[in-house]
Write a structure and sequence with these properties.
Helix content is about 35%, strand content about 25%. It is α+β, with helices and mostly antiparallel strands. The protein folds into three domains: about 260 residues, Aminopeptidase, CATH 3.40.630.10; about 100 residues, Alpha-Beta Plaits; about 50 residues, no CATH class. Bound molecules: zinc ion. Zinc ion binds next to loops.
Length: about 450
């Protein structure tokens, strides 16, 4: 039952734009968050449409909303979820105030226009449309709008997973991390986030004899820490293809029309392919082809004439699905060698729902209609989203919120950057596609 309702596109556009503007005008900068502002707005709109949303604060002002559209229960629910907090903005760098929600140049402007109040509004509209259409579904659709993603999600969806799991328990989850048009070799591409890396941050310490700065030693805690940094930066960890990366590579080599001999996925062919791509894309693809350990901080010594006993390096570690923390740290030790103390800090699990499942296939089939000439391909995220919390409940999480942009629209630099905005036509087009994905998936 694929149904494209949306007959009155003008009315749909007006309503979808109005909700996004309203959300953008609420300052939910995290910290402190104040997400209850946005959650109350959503609750109000949903209540007027006959829903009974649940609002739960994890702390003062840290609102989370959950609401359910009932299906027949023949299948397990689909959770559509998004975060309502945003990162900080520097107003003096913006053409339109970050919390203006202005409409100008065919775009809606404001912090969160792309990340990710646009998807909040898509999901809100889907709930409203389901109700108005009286759609018969086999799965419940649960909508969760939550706090705190930009600071790790513990006060947001992580809180719901820990304290109210039954409210959001679902077989499949759909959220951010894919769906904005990308262009590779001049071709429009839509990526579906089918996995994301886990985190394993650690401090690495070197110890050695102290001494006077006027009497050099061949080896000190500082020199050893520096050696570890250089090794980590210069030595890639082993190539580790995931199901996502393998499927992605096949599509990519097709797209850039590589000769058959170069299409086998191995480290040598990968390197050749990366050399053909723009540097930023190549760096990203390299990051999802292996575990990574990036030195991001250095600390040693307090007096300039004293050789210190210890030196410390902060390392942002990311590991792929299929890898363990222990396995990852063993790779790191292999690179830096013996003699370092490693103190593990926070960790977050990786997750992957390999391409080819029913939700992925639904996305493919809907996008065939909405963007017949575009390519849909799976993608691993180098960073983490709220999926790391949701997947703790056994939910299979994908990231896809369709937004159509033109090749010259700098979406990537606007996310967390200045002048964040979304083109209205691509936003409303995306709402139609997203609605079809949800109804088609939950009807089958
Ligand atoms: Zn986000």
């Amino acid at each position: 039952m694929a149904q494209t309702l949306l007959t009155d596109v003008q009315a749909l556009t007006d309503e979808a734009v109005r909700h996004l503007q309203a959300l953008l005008r609420l300052d939910t900068t995290n910290p402190p968050g104040n997400e209850t502002l946005a959650v109350n707005y959503l609750a109000d709109v949903l209540q007027r449409e006959g829903y009974r949303p649940t609002v739960i604060e994890s702390g003062p002002g840290r609102g989370n909303l959950v609401v359910r559209f009932r299906g027949s229960g023949e299948r397990e629910p689909l959770l559509i979820y998004s975060h309502v907090d945003v990162v900080t903005a520097e107003p003096n760098h913006w053409t339109h105030e970050p919390f203006s929600g202005d409409v100008a140049d065919g775009c809606i402007w404001g912090r969160g226009a792309l990340d990710m109040k646009s998807m909040v509004a898509h999901e809100l509209m889907v709930m409203l449309l389901l109700k108005r259409q009286g759609v018969q579904l086999k799965r419940d659709v649960i909508f969760a709008a939550t706090a705190d993603e930009e600071a790790g999600g513990d006060a947001g969806i992580g809180f719901l997973v820990d304290h109210h799991p039954d409210l959001i328990r679902a077989e499949y989850g759909l959220s951010e991390g894919g769906g904005t048009t990308m262009f590779i070799a001049g071709k429009a591409v839509y990526d579906v986030r089918t996995g994301e890396k886990g985190t394993c941050r650690f401090k690495l310490r070197a110890y050695d004899e102290p001494g006077h700065g006027s009497v050099p030693r061949p080896r000190t805690s500082v020199s050893q820490a520096a050696e570890a940094v250089v090794k980590l930066v210069n030595t890639p960890l082993p190539f580790r293809p995931t199901a996502t990366f393998t499927a992605f590579f096949a599509t990519l080599t097709d797209l850039i029309q590589l000769p058959a001999a170069k299409r086998e996925l191995n480290e040598r062919n990968l390197k050749e392919v990366l050399d053909l791509l723009p540097a930023a894309l190549a760096r990203y693809l390299n990051a999802i082809a292996r575990d990574t350990a990036t030195p991001t901080g250095l600390r040693a010594g307090s007096k300039i004439n004293v050789i210190p006993t210890s030196a410390e390096v902060s390392v942002d570690g990311r590991f792929l699905p299929g890898q363990t923390e222990e396995g990852f740290l063993a790779e790191v030790r292999q690179v830096i060698g013996e003699g370092y103390e490693i103190e593990q800090l926070d960790t977050g699990r990786p997750q992957e729902d390999p391409p080819g499942g029913p939700l992925y296939d639904t996305i493919l089939s809907v996008m065939k209609r909405y963007a017949p000439d575009a390519i849909v391909m799976p993608m691993m995220m180098s960073g983490a989203t709220d999926a790391r919390h949701v997947s703790r409940l056994g939910t299979k999480c994908l990231g896809f919120d369709p937004v159509r942009i033109r090749e010259d629209f700098p979406a990537e630099q606007l996310v967390h950057g200045h002048d964040e905005r979304i083109p209205i036509d691509g936003y409303v087009w995306g709402l139609q596609a997203f609605y079809d994905i949800v109804t088609q998936f939950c009807s089958r």
